[in-house]
Write a structure and sequence with these properties.
Elements: E1 10-17, E2 26-33, E3 40-50, H1 52-60, E4 74-82, E5 94-98, E6 112-116, E7 120-122, H2 129-132, H3 136-149, E8 156-160, H4 165-176, E9 180-185, H5 190-196, E10 200-203, H6 208-215, E11 220-225, E12 237-245, E13 259-260, H7 272-283, E14 291-295, H8 300-309, E15 315-319
Parallel strand pairs: 8-9, 8-11, 9-10, 11-12, 12-13, 14-15
Antiparallel strand pairs: 1-2, 3-4, 3-6, 3-15, 4-5, 5-7
Organism: Lichenifustis flavocetrariae
GO molecular function: oxidoreductase activity
Protein name: NADP-dependent oxidoreductase
């Protein structure tokens, strides 16, 4: 796979941010990638997804990763080498990995990355590398959201931004668990949102909370806010219900005993059993990866511009 002897560092091309700012701070750099340590693997990355968190990292920077900061959370590729103590995976195996971008060595948008083996699973059958790299972060966010919601079969769940990729994953998994789902969508996207698992689909727009209340007069038991509606979504939730923000949440007073449980997906990147569940859902066709565009590393600025413009249905992907 490489001409590098096992246990040696190698040089990799990577997308990097020279500092907080606009697309002008994006560079392609060469950097050294160390060999895998105990419990780690080194992956030759073939595809890495662009997530909204990458846009935030570029705009705001990170105290944990000084410039040049390498973004990226989702990767797919082949295992180049394995550290001591790893027996579940093998060199040459096609894999999917999830990476903490806010770490000194950076994230997934690099030709080679070193990650804990617990954050790596075999790639689902019949997927391209581009498709496979879109699964992990959204899937883990959906699973963590539902774990925090703590709902029982038959309880109600609202999902804002119902046509988005995270909402799709959350709907599929929630439906499997017997929850009643209400989500929003534009009229032309309503049928796909129903197919993900939504029992009721309401029009996307400023009347979301009121529309949910018309369908569930007492309010829903929990709400996953992928559209970042924040307090505007609260009227949809019953007294004492659960609000699940998937973006940063600043503490503030909350009405009617609603419980706010921020979804911090980095906390579950080593939940191997959850990654395996996502592989099962993908291989059985319940989760369908969506690639919205493919870009070379040198085209990352153009990809960021597309992501920031909004309306992307699926994930933009960088190919190495």
């Amino acid at each position: 796979m490489t001409d590098v002897e096992p246990g040696q560092a190698l040089t990799a091309r990577a997308v990097a941010f020279n500092g907080p700012g606009g697309v002008e701070v994006i560079r392609v750099i060469d950097r050294e990638v160390p060999p895998p340590a105990e419990g780690q693997v080194r992956i030759a990355v073939r595809a890495a997804a662009i997530n909204p968190t990458d846009i935030l990292l570029r705009q705001m920077g990170s105290a944990d990763q000084p410039p040049p900061a390498v973004p990226g959370v989702d990767a797919a590729g082949t295992i180049e080498s394995i550290g001591p103590g790893v027996s579940r995976l093998s060199v040459g195996q096609k894999v999917v990995a999830v990476v903490k971008a806010h770490r000194p060595e950076g994230g997934a948008q690099s030709q080679y990355i070193v990650v804990p083996a617990a954050s790596v699973i075999p790639m689902p059958h019949d997927l391209s590398f581009a498709e496979a790299c879109t699964i992990s972060m959204n899937g883990l966010t959906a699973l963590r959201s539902l774990e925090l919601a703590g709902l029982r079969q038959g309880q109600s769940l609202a999902i804002s931004g119902g046509a988005g990729l995270l909402a799709q994953y959350a709907s599929v998994i929630a439906k499997e668990r017997g929850l009643r789902i209400i989500a929003d969508a534009k009229p032309e996207e309503a049928e796909p949102v129903r197919s993900y698992g939504a029992e009721v689909v309401v029009d996307r727009g400023p009347g979301f909370a009121e529309a949910v209340r018309r369908e569930f007069p007492g309010g829903v038991d929990a709400l996953i806010d992928t559209a970042v509606l924040k307090e505007k979504a609260f009227p949809a939730i019953r007294d004492g219900g659960v609000y699940l923000p998937v973006r940063r949440w600043k503490e503030r007073p909350v009405e009617r005993g609603i419980i706010v449980k921020p979804v911090l997906v980095y906390d579950v990147f080593e939940r191997t059993e959850w990654l395996e569940e996502l592989r099962r859902l993908t291989e059985t066709g319940k989760i369908v990866p969506r690639v919205a565009g493919e870009y070379a590393p040198e085209q990352t600025g153009a990809a960021h511009a597309v992501q920031e413009a909004g309306g992307v249905r699926g994930r933009l992907v960088i190919l190495f």
